[in-house]
Amino acid sequence: MTLHVRHPLRHPIRVFALLVGAYFLALSPALLWPSYLDSPVGVLVALPYLSVYLFHALGVPGLLVNDGACGWGWCAPTVFGWCFIAAFWLGLVWLVALGVVRWRARGAAS
Questions:
Q1: Domain count of the chain?
Q2: What residue numbers bound the domain in which 45 lies?
Q3: Regarding predicted confidence, which is higher, 31 or 83?
Q4: pLDDT value at residue 69
Q5: How far apart are the C-alpha atoms of 9 and 6, rounded to whole Å?
Q6: Residue 110's pLDDT is what?
Q7: Residue 7 located in a structural domain
Q8: I need a labelling partner for 53 at 20 to 30 A (CA). Which of 5, 25, 71, 82 fits?
Q9: What's the pLDDT score for residue 109?
C-alpha cells in the first residue's frame, strides 16, 4: 500500500503566496515600531523602491516625475513607475516560485 502525500509547495501559486506573505510578515513589525526599519530589514523595504532609480539610469523612460529632473531632490516614481516596480518584483518572485517548484519536483523524482 502506497501513501500519496500531496505537498503544499507543489503549485507555483502557493509558493508565490508563501514568498509574498513571508515578505510582508517580515516587514509587519515596522507598523508598530518604525525604528525597525533602521535595522538591516530596512534594506528589504528600500530595495524594491530604489530599483526604480536603477531602471531610470538604465534608460527606461517614464519611471520618474519630470523625467528625473527634480533639482537636488529625488523625483518620485510616476504611476507607471509604481506599476513597473510592482510588475518587476512580483514577476521576479513568480520566477523564483517556479524555480522552487521545479527544483522540488526534480528532487522528488530522484
A1: 1
A2: 13-109
A3: 83
A4: 86
A5: 9
A6: 59
A7: no
A8: 25
A9: 60
Residue 3 lies in a domain: no
Residue 95 has pLDDT above 80, yes or no: yes
Burial label, 102 (beta-carbon count in 10 A; 0-12, 13-18, 19+): exposed
CB 30 within 8 A of CB 36: yes
Within a domain: 2: no
SS (H, E, C) the chain: CCCCCCCHHHCHHHHHHHHHHHHHHHHHHHHCCHHHHHCCCHHHHHHHHHHHHHHHHCCCCCCEHHHHCCCCCCCCECHHHHHHHHHHHHHHHHHHHHHHHHHHHHHHHC
C-alpha separations of 31 from 4, 34, 37, 55 in Å: 42, 6, 10, 28
Per the DSSP assignment, residues forming a β-bridge with 64 are 77
- Assess whether pLDDT exceeds 80 at residue 6: no
